[in-house]
Each structure stands twice: as structure tokens, then as C-alpha cells.
Amino acid sequence: MWGLIAPDGAAPPWSRALPSGATEAEARLGALLPHEVDRIYLQNDLTAISPGPLASGLDVRLRQLAHRESHAQASSYRFTPETIAAALTEGETAESMLAFLAGLSLTGVPQPLEYLVRTTADKHGLVRVGYDPDAPPETPRALVTSTEMQALETIAVDQSLRPLGLVRTADGAALTSRAPRDTVLWALIDARYPAVAVDHEGREEPMRRHRIAASALAPGSAPPEAYTTLIATLRASVSSNADAAWLEREIEAAVRARSIVDVDVQLPDGSTRTFTLEASGLGGGRLRGRERGTDVERTLPVSSVQGIRRV
Predict the structure, then answer these.
(1) How far is CA 229 from CA 219, 235, 236, 241, in A?
(2) Which parts of the chain have pLDDT scores under 70?
(3) What pTM, to 2 d.p., does this model score?
(4) C-alpha 76: how far from its chain's center?
(5) Among candidate residues 148, 147, 96, 103, the one with its CA nearest the CA of residue 117
(6) Which domains are assigned to the chain?
(7) What's the Cα-to-Cα distance from 86 to each of 81, 208, 211, rounded to whole Å?
């Protein structure tokens, strides 16, 4: 029924052909919609502009090389070292990317973009992630190697990679991890190391990060009993802890902004008193602030705070 009623109450011209069939109406409506384009403008600032809706196949390929910054009739894309490295990991090469962009661009391939692609490709593969051949089959380990020892030294001390548990091999020429190879690979890529995956024979293996696992059960086929544990866990988690956490976040936000707030505090006798403070600090379970009017520095226990409101 979409589009059949216009503001003036009359049917739009394209829909008047519907009684005789949808084919003619589709043709009339299609003529009013923006047409797909198969060319883009590549710019020196490492962005691409599509002057219209880019054909779906070209859009998918381009999004493997760049981030789409805006999605409209004129969409924009941005190339970064990370997006180029991810494309290389998925099997692209510098030549394949430049050939694709040259055929797609109305303005050729700008020198900054070509330089980005080639330099990223030159560094790509400096770190190789494969399987440790000395590990027993029942407990496989990932093996990280590189032709530059300095790269391994940097990875070994990188704090962001500590969850991988990387340790040196006996000869010190590589690093091993009990984490799966793919986990190690993507962790290194996220940390901006030029890593590639290799198979058991040491050959580079293209990897795609985003995969959707097939569901063991079709949607709606799981019996209600399958969710009993989840529902019980969710219900048990509903408590005053959520309110306390929300109140603490409100206090932290007021302290960061040094806001003037009304703080409701429960006194030892059970009564409640409101203090108007300029929040100045939070630590040790206490809220500090200068009281308006009396200009007295107050320290209030957060456990006694019942509410807080910005003035």
C-alpha cells in the first residue's frame, strides 16, 4: 500500500497503472528513483565519493578496501592502513586493488592512495601466524614468527596482547600461544601489526573475519524449556545493584563536570536531608563538595546518598 496516497489525496501517477498489473507500475516507479552508478571519484585525501547509489557488487568490493563513512545518494568511503591490511589478509594484492580502483575511478588513482596501498602491501606479512609443529595434536598452539626480531620483541612486551599468553620458544626465534591461531591473528591485526595467517605447510592463507555461524536450531524451533535457565538468571540479576550503579554513575558525571547538585542523604536517625553542593571529588566511597550558601566543605558517604539532581 506504500505510496498510494499523496498529500492532496490523489494517487501518484506511477501507481495508476497498478490495476492493469505491476510490471508497468514498476517501470514507471523505477524511472523516478535514482539510478545506480558504476563509477566513483577518488580524491587525494584518501576518500572516495560515489555520485549515486553504487551498484551492489561494486559497493561490496569497495567496502572490503575502505570504510563507508556515509550512506546516501552520494556515499563516501575512506581508505586507511587498517582497511587495506584487512583486504590483504582476505587475499587481495596491491595489483588487484589498484586495478580494481583504476577501473572504477573517474579521476584515476591519486598518488597518495597508490602509495598507501603499496607501502601497506610491502609491510604486510612481516608477522606470520601459523601452527606450532611441536605442539601435541590434542593441544594445538599458535606460532608467531617474523623475519625481523625487533617485531617479535615488540609483540612480546605489548600489554594489549597479554591475554594471548605469548611465550618465547626454546630458541627464542618465535612466540607461541595456547589461543587458537585465528584469535592470535586478529588480535595482532587489531593491534596494527602486519600479520598474515599461514597453514601447516607455511603457505599464506586468506582469512575472512566476519562469518555468521549457522544456527543449530531454526528460529522459533527451540522449546520454551531451553530458555528456563536464561530467564532465571535474568530475573535473579534484577536487584537494587542496578539502581546503585546508576546512582554512582550520576555522581561520577557530576564530579567530572564539577556540577552544582542537590544530594539527598539519609542521616543516622533515618531522616533525609538535602545538601546543595558543587561536586569536587569522589574517592574512598565518599563524595566531596563545597556546600552552597554556607561555603563549607562537605564529605558525604556515597552509601548514604539516596538521590542526586543537577541544579
Answers:
(1) 19, 10, 11, 21
(2) 1-9, 209-223, 237-243
(3) 0.52
(4) 18
(5) 96
(6) 1-29 (no CATH), 41-123 (no CATH), 127-197 (no CATH), 246-310 (2.30.30.100)
(7) 9, 9, 14
